[in-house]
Amino acid sequence: MPPAETLINAPEFTVSELSSALKRTVEDAYGHVRVRGEITGFRGPHSSGHCYFALKDEGAKIEAVIWKGVHGRMRFKPQEGLEVIATGKLTTYPGSSKYQIVIEALEPAGIGALMALMEERKRKLGAEGLFDEARKQLLPWLPEVIGVVTSPTGAVIRDILHRLQDRFPRRVLVWPVRVQGEGSAEQIAAAIRGFNALPEEGPIPRPDLLIVARGGGSLEDLWSFNEEIVVRAAAESMIPLISAVGHETDITLIDFAADKRAPTPTAAAEMAVPVRSELFVEVASLARRTMLCWQRGHESRRNELRAAVRALPAAGELLAIPRQRLDGATAALPRGLKANTHAHFRRFAGVSARLTMRVLRAQLAQAQHRLTASGERMAHSARSLLRNRRDRFAGLAIRLKASKLSNAQAQRQIIARDRERTLRLAERARRALATSTQRLAARVAHSGQLLGALSYRGVLARGFALVRDAEGHAVHAAAGIGPGVRLSLEFADGRVGATADSDRPAATAMSAKPAAGEPKPAAPKRVAKPVGQGSLF
Fold first, then answer.
1. Cα–Cα distance between 217 and 151 in angstroms, integer?
2. Average pLDDT score, the chain
């Protein structure tokens, strides 16, 4: 064991000093490091936006933290169980006596990690139904406007335009985006949503078909098309969308969410439009077939018409029987008219025989009797109605009179209650005014007494005098008065004028400098002057 003297002579550190020294040592020795490990303990960003987790391998574990601003800029986000390569600065956390890595960049550890992340994301989005066949739309047969989301500087857009020009020229709108690197996924998703947000009849035509294209590359190069924001934008697109990312062997998640997948951008252009020359040939063939069918049909109908003409009888044969029936009806018409007239005459004669003067007088008397009875009933009804109305009006008059009396009584009661309340309030106001007046009078009296007690005139009444100079200012010391100065002396009963003498009083001589060895007299205390009131000294 070391001797006690050695322990006593060892330098003494506080906990904070020791933690700071360890922090500097670790940061100086390991400024920036790259660490490979598996993410564990990640439960998503903290409420502050920072991320806290750990990196581990078979034999060790290190705490890790990603600040909020760095996490927002990261292309690859941390996920539980993902093997990554983290780049950052090694430091210590004095609050818990542990070391940790502050991560500044994060990337998957190889193709296997990327494929695992891709499969995990595919399962998650597939469970939400983004890849269902029922969501996919049919491509338009011949779109008027085609929107292309790709890089404006690559060979992809030239291949698409060239292929469209060869097959069937269409209007193409290009939304330039980055197809690789940081921020590319956000630009691609914004382009898809931007095309969908265009109005139908706006200045910029809304595309009938979208093509999201990119050339071939590694899995890392194509990773932007595996981002969740891009896949969701493709699934939400109301415009039919063709995914043409990479070569035929390249698979990205946007291929599952798109309405159609093309192995190459050139194949996407072939899917978008048909071949115009083939259409011309097909239309010409259909026109020839239509003409031949029309000619064959016309000839067949002509033959049928000729056969029908030969089978039809002559016009005279068709009209012979109707003509014969018409002749028979013409011959029977005079006899029918005479029989009809005779039948009507007999019916009118029978009616006229029954219609005599006695019958008419009886019908007239009966009608007059009905009229008289109806008049009497009407007069009786009118008298009954008038009597009912008169009784009703009388009852209403009585009710109105009673209501007026009741209303007047109620109003008188209200007025009486208000008068009583007014009297009570007036009495309370009178008592309150008297009380307030007494309080104010007492306060004025107390203020007068206080003013009399504090006034300098009470001092003058005890035999003192107030000295003023020619300007009316109070004189506080004899040293400020010269010979021949005009003074004013105020007593309790009035003022008198005076002139200062040239000789100084004895008190002035005594106030001269004391001799050596004698104690100095104490300085006179200064009396504070009341505000707004002159001093007596």
1. 14
2. 83
Out of 298-312, 358-372, 472-486, pick the least confident: 472-486
pLDDT in tens, 183-239: 889 999 999 999 999 998 888 999 999 999 998 877 777 888 888 899 999 999 999
Return the pLDDT at 217. 78
Mean pLDDT of 419-442: 94
Closest by CA to 234, choosing from 210, 218, 203, is 210
Confidence of residue 6 (pLDDT cuts 50, 70, 90): low
pLDDT at position 125 over 50: yes
User: How many DSSP H helices and E strands does the chain contain?
Assistant: 14, 13
Q: Hey, what's the torsion of the CAs at 505, 506, 508, 513, to 10 degrees?
A: 160
What are the residue boundaries of the structural domains of the chain, listed by start? 8-109, 144-274, 277-309
Quick check: helix, strand or coil at residue 191? helix
Q: For the domain with range 144-274, which CATH number is right: 3.40.50.1220, 3.40.50.9100, 3.10.330.10, 3.40.50.2000? A: 3.40.50.9100
* Nearest one of 263, 195, 253, 250 to 224, comparing CA atoms: 253
Whole-number Å distance between alpha carbons of 58 and 85: 16
List the one residue out of 183, 181, 277, 163 whose CA is nearest residue 221. Answer: 181
Which residues, at least 6 apart from 20, have a Cβ–Cβ distance to it below 8 Å? 94
Taking Cα atoms as reference points, which of 165, 187, 164 lies closest to residue 176? 187
- Which fold does the domain 8-109 belong to in CATH? OB fold (Dihydrolipoamide Acetyltransferase, E2P) (2.40.50)
